[in-house]
Design brief:
4-stranded antiparallel beta sheet, alpha+beta, 219 residues, 34% helix, globular
């Protein structure tokens, strides 16, 4: 597996996959849309349109605040998905692996990062961004990383729970993938592992290939 270490008080799960066969399919995206409808129906049933009423959102927000990041200015990726779902906005459609990741993140409301393992150079460290660090994000704009928490390899930062870099992005040519899941240190590691095992099953069902590794790292 990818050598990993952390300098920050966050629980991380890492799931790796080999021999992927990606494309733009219907089944995973249909499941993502169904999950969005379920979350919207839940919100209407419980009489609140506020993402903050969802316990998983509060967990992600606590993670951000613990490291000095204002989650009202920089949303966790899972909350950003939920907000789109509650407003009935179209969800992003990239490829089957991204669809599965978004589906899982929207259901469990945990921020995730999804990367092409062949574009990661050497060991990975979770740390705070340093002065002057930035990368070209998937949003199409440079992202300032100073003071934020980042995943960095031997080349430099490539991911955050806000938005990831173009350098390590998944494409239809990706054959080896890696999910990093950000979780509260108070979360039960066995529960987190079980949830990520479900993610592995979904990837194998919708993206071909096979799960090749799973680890939960203590903060």
């Amino acid at each position: 597996m990818i050598p990993f270490s952390s300098e920050l008080p966050i629980r991380i799960a890492l799931a790796e996959f080999d021999d992927l066969a990606l494309g733009v399919g219907d089944s995973a995206f249909a499941a993502l849309e169904a999950c969005a409808e379920d979350q919207k129906a839940r919100s209407e049933r419980e009489g609140t349109a506020s993402p903050g009423a969802f316990p998983g959102v509060q967990t992600a927000r606590r993670l951000f605040r613990a490291l000095g990041i204002d989650p009202t200015k920089h949303r966790p990726s899972s909350e950003a998905l939920l907000r789109r779902a509650l407003k009935g906005k179209p969800l992003p459609r990239v490829n089957t692996l991204v669809d599965v990741g978004n589906w899982w993140s929207l259901e469990y409301l945990l921020p995730i990062g999804l990367y092409d393992r062949d574009r990661i150079e050497g060991a990975v460290t979770l740390r705070q961004g340093r002065p002057g660090e930035a990368y070209d994000a998937l949003t199409g704009r440079p992202l300032n990383l100073e003071g934020r928490y980042v995943l960095a390899d031997d080349t430099g930062p490539f991911g955050t729970p806000i938005t990831d870099s173009e350098r390590t992005a998944i494409s239809e040519a990706t054959r080896r993938g890696a999910f990093f899941v950000y979780a509260d240190p108070a979360d039960d590691p066995a529960t987190l592992r079980a949830a990520v095992e479900q993610l592995q099953q979904r990837v194998e069902e919708h993206c071909g290939g096979h799960a090749s590794g799973l680890a939960v790292f203590e903060p």
